[in-house]
Specification:
alpha/beta; OB fold (Dihydrolipoamide Acetyltransferase, E2P); six-stranded parallel sheet; five-stranded parallel sheet
């Protein structure tokens, strides 16, 4: 059996692709290893969404080229979003790559290894799958579940539709079967993802259908179900209302707003204004006042002025979002915004992100402080950290998603092992984005 090291880069959607690649390899006489030095084959699942991610993918591939210098028989496979966009350019830049496949079908990695004459010419059809996953990259107790592939939006800054194709929603019965498989594997928290989760079912059933899928997933028996990557549509209000009726649906939404300046949002081909967005958030909180809202914003979009930045800063202060990510704009070949001017200097862009992050820091601290003195049910992340010389375990509240949000540090001893959920009395802030507490 050939030994494979699989390096999964990119977002949770790419992580699911990597787990499917692992499944195909493990069921066809390949074994996974956890150190690249042990491998006969290295597979890198690349990301090609923004400039920093592309550079990370290239740097990662080059690091494995160095290993190949001492082991000429080592095979390097590049797959994922970067190779979907720039396959020939990547092979020219790094000729040591033996195989390159895109994102249309994770099974292509296996074909590339077994059939040197294979051709990567498939259409975007890979949605009819159910349990073809090896949970090697999932968390301690959570897993991501894709409800659809691709996107039909036309956001001015984004090339995801060019990379992953149009939206293809998976049939509900396939999703529910995969959910049952994940629950049988011991998964406690199911996290729903897609390029545009809000629009699930629009292409397949003629209407947005996540509200029809959720009750079926609740019946599977997950203690927690989390929804990510929502587009701000009225349908989201229906989903939030369902959180009141179905306790496993945690009171948390991830809804990237991208900006608050009406002028910039119009250029982004998204639309909206600060007043409209604030009204939308008020409607969400009128349904569940204590809901956690996460968002993301692009900083440095072409033509963004200091006034636009101030509009966003004032919006943050009024919106009082729980968690926020700021992303530096980068031109993406084929996007509408790549043709726009003027571009924002990198130094200015960094200064703007630093300023906005400082505004949000105070807001996040205030939002987190509302939990002090309360007892929350938390999930074990399986991670430990020494804080000021003492061992702590890192747990997550229902108001925190894995990897991107914070959590709760609790004193730990081995007697607590084996239990996934703990009731934690929250005692204090730990820096700006985490909490400290004691298991009760």
């Amino acid at each position: 059996m050939k030994k494979v090291f699989l390096d999964a880069l990119g977002c949770p959607k790419a992580l699911v692709d990597a787990e499917r690649i692992a499944y195909f390899l493990q069921t066809h006489d390949y074994t996974l290893v956890f150190h690249p030095e042990e491998a006969d084959i290295i597979v890198v699942n690349t990301c090609g969404f923004i400039e920093d991610a592309k550079q990370e993918s290239i740097d990662t591939l080059l690091s494995y080229v160095e290993l190949k210098k001492n082991n000429p028989s080592l095979e390097i496979v590049a797959t994922g979003c970067l190779t979907e966009r720039y396959k020939q350019e990547l092979l020219s830049l790094i000729p040591e790559i033996d195989h390159a496949t895109g994102v249309k079908d994770p099974h292509l990695v296996l074909e590339a290894l077994q059939k040197p004459s294979y051709t990567d010419t498939r259409a975007y059809t890979d949605i009819h799958w159910k349990t073809e996953r090896s949970l090697v990259f999932s968390g301690f107790a959570y897993a991501y579940l894709k409800v659809s592939e691709g996107c039909n939006r036309a956001c001015g800054f984004c090339v995801i539709p060019h990379i992953r194709g149009p939206q293809r929603s998976r049939p509900m019965e396939d999703i529910v079967e995969e959910a049952r498989f994940l629950r049988d594997q011991g998964i406690e928290e199911l996290i729903l993802i897609a390029e545009d989760t809000t629009s699930y079912g629009l292409d397949l059933y003629g209407k947005r259908s996540l509200s029809l899928l959720l009750p079926q997933l609740v019946e599977v028996g997950f203690p927690w179900i989390r929804i990510m990557y929502l587009y701000p549509e009225p349908e989201v209000l229906t989903l939030v209302a369902m959180m009141k009726d179905y306790p496993p649906l945690v009171p948390y939404i991830d809804i990237p707003l991208q900006h608050a300046s009406e002028r910039i949002l119009l250029s982004m081909r998204r639309g909206g204004s600060p007043t409209e967005l604030l009204s939308y958030l008020d409607k969400i909180r009128n349904i569940i006042p204590d809901i956690a809202i996460r968002s993301a914003f692009i900083v440095g979009y072409p033509g963004e002025t200091e006034e636009d930045v101030e509009i966003l800063a004032r919006f943050l202060e009024e919106a009082q979002l729980d968690r926020v990510g700021f992303f530096a704009y980068s031109d993406e070949e084929g996007s509408f915004s790549a043709t726009l001017t003027p571009k924002i200097a990198k130094k200015t862009l960094k200064e703007r992100i630093s300023y906005l992050a400082s505004v949000q820091k105070a807001i996040s601290e205030k939002r987190l402080s509302r939990f002090i003195g309360k007892t929350l049910l938390c999930i074990d992340e399986g991670k430990q950290k020494v804080i000021r010389g003492k061992p702590y375990r890192f747990l997550r509240t229902p108001y925190d998603a894995p990897d991107i949000d914070g959590g709760v540090f609790v004193p730990w001893d081995d007697s607590l092992e084996g239990k996934i959920f703990h009731r934690v009395h929250i005692e204090a802030l730990e820096k700006s984005y985490d909490l400290k507490g004691t298991i009760v």
